[in-house]
Amino acid sequence: MASGFTLIFGLLRIVNLAHGALYLFGGLHRLHRRSKDRSFALGGIGAMAAIAAIGFVLDQGLLRFVRGNELRQVLLTLGFAFVLNDLALVIWGGDSFTVPIPQTLRGGLRVFGVFIRPIVCFVLVTGIVVFAALWLLLESYALGALIRAGVDDAEMVEASGSISAACFLVTFLLGSALAGLGGLMGGAFLSLYPSADAEILVFSLAVVIIGRARQPGRCWCRQLLVGLLNTLAR
């Protein structure tokens, strides 16, 4: 969730306050498709694809008209989040839901005298994989170099024409897809309810604000810091 928000806000400089609503819809999409997508992995891919499609509508249908105007982006994405939240209430109601997990991720494991839930290990491994993939993408491929160049010198990159526009669109869709994946994980590890999007968005904002927002490949340390502070403060 925070990695996707870092891509959109930290690199593209788009204040997308609808990111929490995309998280909520990602988990609810998996809940809605659980009878058809028997595989948890396929359900995750489906949730990412569905939220990426919503992100495409948001970016190309709305945000492209307010490029460079942060205040309008805030108001627009906040209104879009309200629409998604109301739509979720109409479709799924206001109850609390938990995304079903495979039998292999249920129960508990005894490690060095401490019981650990397998779903916790699965979420941790998934986070590490996402971090490694983002770091590799942004540090080792031309796409990452083009994104960083667009942040540092937007005018020069815009001179390349449609290449930069397509690159930024792919980045926005990737950030949205990560929000969908976060919703799947959050729905399985925690639960989904009407205000869950606002609560998780606060954590994502904290991750982006703490430290350097232009390095999403290194935001894992800020995510750990925010997570530890939240856990110890309870």
Main features:
234 residues, mainly alpha, 3% strand, globular
Summary?
The protein has helices at 2-11, 19-32, 40-61, 70-92, 118-140, 142-152, 154-158, 162-189, 196-209, 220-232; strands at 109-111, 114-116.
The fraction of residues assigned to DSSP E strands is: under 5%
Give the end-to-end Cα distance, rounded to a whole number of Å: 21 Å
SS element count, helices: 10
Q: Record the strand order, biggest sheet.
A: 1-2
Structural class: mainly alpha
The average pLDDT is: 81
How many structural domains can be distinguished in the coordinates? 1
Broad shape:
globular
**How many strands in all?**
2
Structure description:
With 234 residues, this protein is mainly alpha-helical. It has one domain (2-100, 118-232). It has helices spanning 2-11, 19-32, 40-61, 70-92, 118-140, 142-152, 154-158, 162-189, 196-209, 220-232, and strands at 109-111, 114-116. The protein has a two-stranded antiparallel ribbon. α1 crosses α9 and α6 (142-152) packs across α8. It is globular. The two termini are 21 Å apart. The mean pLDDT is 81.
